[in-house]
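Example 5.3 — Aminoglycoside phosphotransferase domain-containing protein
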Amino acid sequence: MGPDDAFDEHLTARMPWTEVVGVLERLGWTPCGTGDWAYALRSPSGALAARISPFDPAGAYSAALYREAAHTRQVPALVDHRVLDGGADLTVMEYLAPVPEAEGIAFQRSITRREPEVATLAAHIADVHARGAREQPWWGPLDDNPANVMRGADGRLVVADLFYADGPALYRAVRDDPDRIVRDYPEHLRRHMTELPLASSGGWADGDAERMRAGLAATDARLRGRG
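Solution (predicted structure tokens):
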């Protein structure tokens, strides 16, 4: 990481995710994408990308895969991962470029088949995914989207963002069974779960996030009263 991309000394453990975004932008990081779960910023040199999610139970598992499978050179080079205040998630890694869809499909297929050139990677993926399934109550299947296959600046193919929480089921439960969500995720890990960008899904329906927050707050208060 070059001096132009330095960020660590400017962040603190108590910063909310919105302040982290603001700090990075003031340091010269620029927006480079928004999805359903996260915002992305590119570093001043262009070498790094920061992925910031207000709430992502899968973030730590993606970071674990990038660390554990780093020797394969088929996952992104991880620079930093941390859980932010309120359970938000920050991942900083090398900047990656998209590849043609056919290339992404072929690479994902090779992982599914555990072909020799990706067999070690596939084993790491299976191990971390199984860990998430044991530990996370709303764990989804592997994401075989070809867009998750990208290319590093050195030309190698890598795969990222394979793990995710089952968002539709999870957020239905926020609406319909907030007691379950409160049991599954302590407040300090879900404080910002209604702040996801949902850029790929068209955003939040009018009043939906507010109703979810109110329902969770009421459930928290009721359960605290029982204690």
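Remark. Residues 170-220 form one domain.
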